[in-house]
Amino acid sequence: MKEKAPSFVKGEGNASFPGKSNAQRKEDAAKRKAIFLKAFEEWGTVRRGCEAAGVSRETYSMWHKTDPDFAKSTDLMKHSFAESLEVIALDRVKNPDKNRGSDVLLLGLLNANMPAKYRPSVAMDQDSAKELITEWRKASQAVKKEGVSVDEPLPVSVEDTLTEILARKKG
């Protein structure tokens, strides 16, 4: 049987902090918000943030609705998390032989967290996606072999990059 969470986790307001002053409750909430934001920036999920801060999703939702500074901070942390995914992707292009995780999962995370930049505007079937990943890996190997400068930024649209890779294969 699941243990009942402490009442402060359920976001039940002042009744959940017997014997604590308003100032103490605010200080506790501020600490929990800071813990949440740090975990949210690292993991990119509300669930991980809530677990780290020891609060429920309902408490997170209340904070997000009632505290504009917290809401703005969550947006900034989400953007920071998305940029960390971009760093991983660029590292994979620059260091294709390095031990790494799944390219498909990384693309999925980039699509979810930066859709304007990484979500293709056209549907792609499974074979095309596999071909694209294969060509992306070949292109990464070629860049490494040829000693081409990889310090230049990628085009703003990944779709342009992917189209270029597929065009090189056909050409």
| Computed CA radius of gyration, to the nearest angstrom | 22 Å
Q: Can you count the helices? A: 8
Q: Could you estimate the helical fraction of the residues in percent?
A: 55-70%
Can you summarize the main beta sheet?
none
Assembly state (oligomeric):
single chain
Mean pLDDT: 77
> What's the total count of β strands?
0
Please state roughly what percent of the residues sit in beta strands, choosing from under 5%, 5-15%, 15-25%, 25-35%, 35-45% or over 45%: under 5%
Tell me the span between the first and last alpha carbons: 63 Å
Q: Structural class, please? A: mainly alpha
Indicate the overall shape.
elongated
State the order of secondary-structure elements, H for helix, E for strand: HHHHHHHH
Unreliable runs, pLDDT <50, ≥5 residues?
A: 1-15
Number of domains: 2
Explain this structure to me?
This protein is mainly α and 171 residues long. Residues 1-15 have low confidence and may be disordered. It contains eight helices and no strands. Helix content is 68%, strand content 0%. Helix 1 (22-43) crosses helix 2 (46-53) and helix 7 crosses helix 8. The protein folds into two domains: 7-66, no CATH class; 80-170, no CATH class. The chain starts with 21 loop residues before the first helix and ends with a helix.
Short description:
The protein is an all-alpha fold. It folds into two domains: 7-66, no CATH class; 80-170, no CATH class.
Write the layout of secondary structure elements.
Blueprint: H1 22-43, H2 46-53, H3 57-66, H4 68-94, H5 103-113, H6 115-118, H7 126-146, H8 158-170
Helix pairs in contact: 1-2, 1-4, 3-4, 4-5, 7-8
